[in-house]
Fold this sequence. Notes:
Number of strands: 0
Helix content: over 70%
Strand content: under 5%
Shape: elongated
Order of helices and strands: HHHHHHH
Distance between the termini: 29 Å
Number of helices: 7
Amino acid sequence: MIYSENDLYKAFALFEQGFDFYEVTNYFKKNNASIFDKQKIELIIDAVLMYYEITEKEFMSRSRLRYLVNARGIFYYLSRNLTKNSTIFIGKRVNRDHATVLNGYRVIKDLLQLNLDNVKEDIERITDIFNEYIEAKNEKKNQLIKDVCKVKS
């Protein structure tokens, strides 16, 4: 498993509080990966909503307007590629079943291969927005961890 700089600060803070190696590794195994992937799903949705300038209600609707179908498909595509979540979990987040997620993923994959609907550009821009969200979140975590370490000193 790969750990970020935030994880190392958190581990250091846990060691300073008296936790042993076994307890710290168990903490990361149980909490870190699943929580972070759930947070990634939310950030992907936020990035898609921001890029397409739509509300979550529109995004979750059963509408078949092309831009909404593309928005949902790109969400499925990015969720499958950027997280370790199952299609069942991804679908539950947007009130769809796993088959809908798979179909939407395949549609976007096909559109990418044929370079239709500017899907490639949309995915790149949404991924950039997502990465900005991740950076901002990591900076905030770093600051909180540094503040905790200063208080403990």
